[in-house]
Amino acid sequence: MEKLIEKMLTGDKRSCARLITKVENDEDEARQIIKKIHKYTGNARVIGITGPPGAGKSTLTDKLVRLLLNEGKKVAIIAVDPTSPYSGGSILGDRIRMQDLALEANVFIRSLGTRGYLGGLSRSTKDVVKVLDAYGADYIFIETVGVGQSEVDIIKTADTILMVMVPGLGDDIQSIKAGIMEIGDIFAINKADLFGAERTATEINMMLDLGQNIERRPPVKLVCAREKQGINELLDELKGHIKYLEDTGKLRERRYRNTKVEILEMIEEHLRRIVIGYTDKDDKLDIRVNEILDKDKNIYQVIDEFLSVINK
Amino acid sequence: MEKLIEKMLTGDKRSCARLITKVENDEDEARQIIKKIHKYTGNARVIGITGPPGAGKSTLTDKLVRLLLNEGKKVAIIAVDPTSPYSGGSILGDRIRMQDLALEANVFIRSLGTRGYLGGLSRSTKDVVKVLDAYGADYIFIETVGVGQSEVDIIKTADTILMVMVPGLGDDIQSIKAGIMEIGDIFAINKADLFGAERTATEINMMLDLGQNIERRPPVKLVCAREKQGINELLDELKGHIKYLEDTGKLRERRYRNTKVEILEMIEEHLRRIVIGYTDKDDKLDIRVNEILDKDKNIYQVIDEFLSVINK
After folding, report:
1. SS3 sequence of B77-112
2. Full domain range(s) for residue B292
3. Residue B141 and residue B100 share a domain
4. Mind listing the pLDDT tens digit for each residue in A128-147?
5. Inter-chain touch A270–B179, beta carbons under 8 Å
6. Chain B positions in Cβ-Cβ contact with residue A152 (cut-off 8 Å)
7. pLDDT tens for residues A190-216?
8. Are B15 and B162 within one domain?
């Protein structure tokens, strides 16, 4: 593994891919790898891209990444979105075009699964970001679909959040999404050649103007990824936001907050396993649940019993 | 408190209200109350009502409850939906009409807040259900808005889930909601006098036919709550589902599963507090996070340190 890491640090793509596979599949190896690469992390800028299915997030990512490649940057893409062509979803044409990008020397693409019901980011996502960071990626794009938990999780991982919208989302969606829109640092209305783009922009602008506690009012950009319109301007906004984070010390603030959450979540996960290890043994949980349903015990008695194991 | 509980058990509405307030506001009191009333619980049937904002969930609940009152039943309504007239939302006319219901001797209405970002049910919701159960409610309706976490949480609390839809929800919502539709035991398409009701019914029926692992194919009913059309039939479906749960032993199964989840969630909450209690002391967490960001330590070193203390 030492060797793999060494090779990865010199920019070897295949070693990077193999390390990511290890990080995904084996928690102990992940642990060892992260310990060893930690001092090489912190340099990549992590951009979360989210929005409804069909908003064209992958096409937009594709265009942004190509511009960065022209600047000589090294870029990684993590697709958590199951409808993304990078993940094998979407129509064939898209998929072939996207896979093209994967052939570029300075691009690394990886598709990751989600976890559970509404699809939060998996535990390993943060570790994969760290490997790609140490690998030397200047920018890491994480594409998630804007439904459920992964959208909430992404703010714990990314430095900058780009929300991709499309014209003609009805009032229903807009009202449902009100809470979620608060996480966007930059808004792109893609497919701006479609009818209603200006109106969608106006609506989003109105919502953002109503937003409170926003230190920096997010810009709203009309783009058309397929026609490569507005991509340069959008990239400027992304860079502008990153620069703003750096200049104001907010980059450190965000990473501080994210690291804190990461620590607490990992500790909780560890304790959860201790408890589940105990409750699963000898069907203890099963027996206690039945005792509660039969009114032999109440739930607080049971909880006290289970917790006494950890506190020991 | 003993006295309050005694009075509540004899059916005193005011005592019930005061106990619920205690359960909501004070965890230690909640604990004591639940311990004491546990043996009187388990008799109420809990019906979760969910669906998009504006689907007319409250009006439908209102009509269903009035039918149950005519049968001499005791009913409780918990409104977690912020747009519900029971919670003070919605337009004035609705609100006045709903508050009417609260004056009925056999109806108890309570509005509860949600928790956090995407609005899961608050910790106390389950405890409030238990109080209302011991109070002697035959049916407890929980109204939540079909957005985010509360919809997922409701399956952990209710015996039967009624999904309320409306005609003309676009494909966008349908696709986003695919996962969430799986939780419905019964579907009502409200405002069935609106254009597109039949089509919406057909679409939902098609989705349900595609659904796998469904032991009992959920029925889809066209209703018009405001005109009192189809309400009797819908109530029959609700009762039919409850009877099905009882006859097949699935009521116990669901409650078993829900109690299990409740235990595990309460343990996790407790663990979270242990962790935060330790890490917050002497700014330990703050110092360690900065050490990680400065690359003096890696995250696993920090976690090992915290765990070693907690495990002691």
Report:
1. EEECCCCCHHHCCCCHHHHHHHHHHHCCCCEEEEEC
2. 263-311
3. yes
4. 999 999 999 999 999 987 65
5. no
6. 117-118
7. 999 988 888 888 888 887 887 665 678
8. yes
